[in-house]
């Protein structure tokens, strides 16, 4: 058996559904019930966007900005260092420049200043002669900083989308969907809010900024529904044909050449724009988006791409160190993982936390310790059932700074409070979460047969794109046989399968699932969930299944027969609930020590049973299976290949008896070699026959001389105990060692299932 790593939640399932009906079902599950709503979803229109004037304080902000432009006041755009922040910054900068404003931008350094507006930055902005600050994608929690701004005579306009912590700062204007009662759509990205301000200021719909809006919206993981869906869809179309030099260069280094998809943004453009702010200052990302020079665009894109490669290497190192901390003290991380270490780059800790979340399926806080300052800073990611923002606010007194969303947060705390926060969050999780909550939940949209999977079906489903938060790519369930399998990737960490069912095939890939290679046998049907894609290779297009999770509900037979180094192969596969068993030859070693089958107790259920040698009788193996009823069986024994060749047939018994009878006296020293040359037998076959004859008293032996016993009573060969043992051993090897996998599996499972049936009858008193 192979347990799934996630909880599969099944919606209404059907064996065969026409693609058009499947799409309607998926829309129903997204809460779209009326034909009008479904039409709007499938055919988004810019006409369905809300008017910016519905945002609270936007008119007040417009008047102040226009006055600043008229009086040549200097305006500072204060942004954030992530993709949403840099696209927002570039968008408002271009808007102000188009209006003729004297403006510049300021993005804090993550390492020296931290997140958001800070008093020192405000002082510098004031000293440089700026009188108006417009924040983008930040500012809603910067109370202290804006008190400083007010004291210095600076006006502040906040545009943000992050969670509001009770009240809002006392500033000139706050443009935020969640504090705007008349604005129906509450979950715009920071760049979406900036776009609304731009549209209001310019007096027309600024289509030229939709490429920036798509990147910030998709990369910031806001729900891709309502206005976000419209902006992302038209923004990706703009990205495909963009004339923005920086994005053309960034697409080139990202390997994006054709129609831009949400995956291109989420895994190509977004991470690269994020990377510069994670490792240093985010200014190169903004400059890339603003440049009008081809050479500068190419140089900045190359620089950003190199920075992203450095970021990937740093993430890999920190993730490995963080996992080691968890493994060294698992008792500290039972419900919530809190890992901290000096020297970790705080800019990538959100990514590291996400990796640990996927691996351990529990909330994660990942912190870097700054010993000189006496503080720890970092990021957190969470499972669906644990609201980070809510529970972080429950223990707000332990943080110097805290903010974020339900599943992602950032924080600063004293080093002394690390253990306090760990204990507090673990206690909250223990009291509020059930065991099943720690498994990621995946909603399965439909059950498919392989014969349904044609390219047109996948293209029809892509009408639901762009996919993302609140509009996930449909997840499908398949049941098939992994007829071909191989590990791929430089470190063989990925798994490629050819699934087969009823003569239909489908290629499938499971990223990060290379370790499951040995758990799958072509004759063992697997269940898997995943998403459909169209794979294009060498001008050929085919449907491909991207596996997200796998399970095998039937008992698994793992065939290591005849492998000398089975211990090395098996070591990583076993859980704590396993037992290594021998019949005759014990195994004693650093990896495994076996126990005799006779020492096992009745009804001692074992999840994983490892058998290291062959029994003398087949019934002994059957008894072992019935005694332990294992979920998985690992067959790791070897056989003597000479044994079967040594077993004589009845005709061979008859021939040698006649030969000895003819000779009257059989001298083994000379006659054995003659028989070997004449019959081509091996010596052990001759010895076997003569020993059976001796046991049945057909012959008498005096040293090396064998003579026929003329007075013997006739009896069958099966009367010989040695002959019976020989046949039993042959039966054992024929079934357990030399039979094919399918035949062996059928027999093994039949022994357990017959016992299970007997037990069930006993339970019910039948």
TrEMBL record:
Which residue windows are transmembrane per the record? none
Pinpoint the Single-stranded-DNA-specific exonuclease RecJ C-terminal domain residues: 556-748
- The DDH domain covers 74-217
The DHHA1 domain covers 334-430
Task: Outline the extent of the RecJ OB domain.
Answer: 444-549
The record, for InterPro entries, names: DDH_dom (IPR001667), DHH_sf (IPR038763), DHHA1_dom (IPR003156), RecJ (IPR004610), RecJ_C (IPR018779), RecJ_OB (IPR041122), SSDNA_exonuclease_RecJ (IPR051673)
Q: Name one GO molecular function term.
A: 5'-3' exonuclease activity
Pfam families linked: DHH, DHHA1, RecJ_OB, ssDNA-exonuc_C
Q: What keywords appear on the UniProt entry?
A: Exonuclease, Hydrolase, Nuclease
Name a single GO biological process: DNA repair
SUPFAM superfamilies recorded: DHH phosphoesterases (SSF64182)
Its family? Belongs to the RecJ family.
Write down what this protein is called: Single-stranded-DNA-specific exonuclease RecJ
Q: To which species is this protein native?
A: Streptohalobacillus salinus
């Amino acid at each position: 058996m192979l347990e799934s790593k996630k909880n599969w939640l099944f919606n209404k399932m059907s064996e065969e559904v026409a693609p058009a009906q499947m799409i309607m079902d998926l829309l129903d599950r997204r809460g779209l019930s009326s034909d009008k709503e479904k039409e709007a979803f499938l055919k988004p229109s810019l006409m369905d966007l809300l008017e910016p004037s519905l945002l609270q304080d936007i008119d007040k902000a417009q008047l102040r900005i226009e006055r600043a432009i008229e009086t040549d006041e200097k305006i500072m755009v204060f942004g954030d260092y992530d993709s949403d922040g840099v696209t927002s910054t570039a968008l408002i900068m271009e808007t102000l420049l188009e209006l003729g404003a004297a403006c510049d931008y300021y993005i804090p350094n993550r390492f020296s200043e931290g997140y958001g507006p800070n008093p020192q930055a405000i002082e510098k902005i004031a000293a440089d002669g700026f009188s108006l600050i417009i924040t983008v994608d930040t500012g809603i929690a910067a109370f202290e900083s804006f008190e400083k701004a007010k004291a210095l005579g600076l006006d502040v306009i906040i545009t943000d989308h992050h969670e509001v912590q009770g009240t809002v700062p006392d500033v000139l204007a706050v443009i935020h969907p969640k504090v705007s009662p008349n604005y129906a759509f509450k979950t715009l990205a920071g760049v979406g809010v900036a776009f609304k301000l731009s549209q209001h200021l310019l007096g027309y719909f600024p289509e030229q900024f939709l490429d920036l809006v798509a990147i910030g919206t998709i990369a910031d993981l806001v729900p891709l529904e309502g206005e976000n869906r419209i902006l992302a869809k038209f923004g990706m179309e703009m990205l495909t044909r963009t004339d923005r030099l920086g994005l053309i260069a960034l697409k080139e280094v990202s390997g994006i050449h054709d129609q831009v998809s949400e995956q291109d943004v989420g895994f190509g453009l977004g991470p690269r724009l994020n990377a510069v702010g994670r490792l240093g200052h985010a200014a190169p990302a903004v400059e890339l988006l603003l440049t009008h020079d081809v050479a500068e665009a190419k140089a900045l894109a190359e620089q950003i791409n190199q920075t992203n490669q450095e970021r990937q290497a740093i993430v890999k190192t920190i993730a490995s160190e963080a996992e080691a901390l968890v493994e060294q003290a698992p008792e500290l991380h039972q419900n919530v993982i809190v890992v901290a270490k000096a020297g970790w780059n705080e800019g990538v800790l959100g990514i590291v936390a996400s990796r640990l979340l996927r691996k351990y399926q529990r909330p994660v806080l990942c912190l870097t310790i700054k010993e000189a300052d006496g503080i720890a800073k970092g990021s957190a990611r969470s499972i669906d059932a644990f609201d980070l923002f809510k529970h972080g606010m429950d223990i707000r007194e332990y943080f110097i700074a805290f903010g974020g969303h339900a599943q992602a947060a950032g924080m600063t705390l004293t080093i002394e409070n690390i253990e306090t926060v760990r204990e507090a969050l673990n206690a909250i999780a223990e009291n509020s979460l059930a065991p099943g909550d720690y498994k990621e939940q995946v909603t399965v949209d439909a059950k498919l047969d392989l014969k349904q999977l044609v390219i047109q079906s996948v293209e029809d489903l892509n009408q639901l794109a762009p996919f993302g938060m609140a509009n996930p790519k449909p997840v499908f369930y398949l049941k098939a046989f992994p007829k071909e399998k191989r590990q791929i990737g430089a470190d063989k960490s990925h798994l490629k399968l050819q699934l087969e069912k009823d003569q239909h095939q489908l290629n499938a890939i499971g990223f990060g699932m290379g370790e499951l290679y040995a758990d799958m046998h072509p004759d063992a049907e697997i269940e898997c969930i995943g998403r459909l894609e169209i794979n294009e290779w060498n001008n050929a297009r085919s449907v491909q299944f991207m596996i997200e999770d796998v399970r095998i509900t039937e008992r698994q037979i793992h065939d290591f027969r005849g492998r000398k180094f089975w211990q090395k192969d098996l070591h990583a596969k076993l859980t704590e609930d396993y037992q290594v068993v021998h019949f005759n030859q014990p195994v004693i070693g650093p990896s495994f020590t076996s126990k005799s089958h006779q020492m096992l107790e009745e009804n001692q259920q074992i999840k994983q049973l490892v058998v290291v040698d062959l029994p003398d009788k087949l019934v002994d193996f059957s008894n072992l299976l019935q005694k332990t009823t294992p979920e998985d069986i690992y067959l790791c024994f070897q056989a003597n290949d000479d044994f079967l060749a040594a077993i004589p047939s009845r005709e061979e018994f008859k021939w040698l008896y006649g030969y000895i009878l003819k000779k009257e006296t059989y001298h083994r020293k000379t006659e054995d070699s003659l028989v070997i040359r004449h019959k081509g037998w091996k010596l052990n076959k001759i010895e076997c026959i003569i020993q059976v004859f001796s046991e049945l008293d057909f012959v008498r032996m005096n040293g090396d001389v064998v003579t026929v016993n003329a007075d013997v009573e006739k009896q069958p060969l099966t009367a010989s105990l040695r002959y019976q043992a020989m046949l039993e051993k042959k039966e054992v090897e024929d079934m357990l060692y030399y039979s094919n996998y399918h035949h062996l599996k059928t027999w093994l499972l039949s022994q357990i299932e017959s016992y299970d049936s007997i037990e069930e009858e006993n339970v019910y008193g039948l």
